[in-house]
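The data are passed on as follows:
___
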Amino acid sequence: MRRVLIGAAFLLALAACGGKRELTPAPGESLPPKPAAEPTPLTPTQLITPSVQARPQRSDELLKQSEERRDDRFNLPPR
């Protein structure tokens, strides 16, 4: 069993080491047309980068440690 796990971990690590190269469209395909407001067509890297609207940043403070919740006066039992 241990040998299988080591082999699986090795194959997973090997698969993660894939070559990195510039993205290109599939043979016979082309990039989508450029947006109307852009002066030049977008590169493949620009096309896969999410916009600010697609991936917004958190604006509220995350809890750093647990705190007691305030009493919620609207937390009523069901009727």
User: Anything to note?
Assistant: The chain has one domain: 1-64. The chain is about 25% helix and 0% strand.
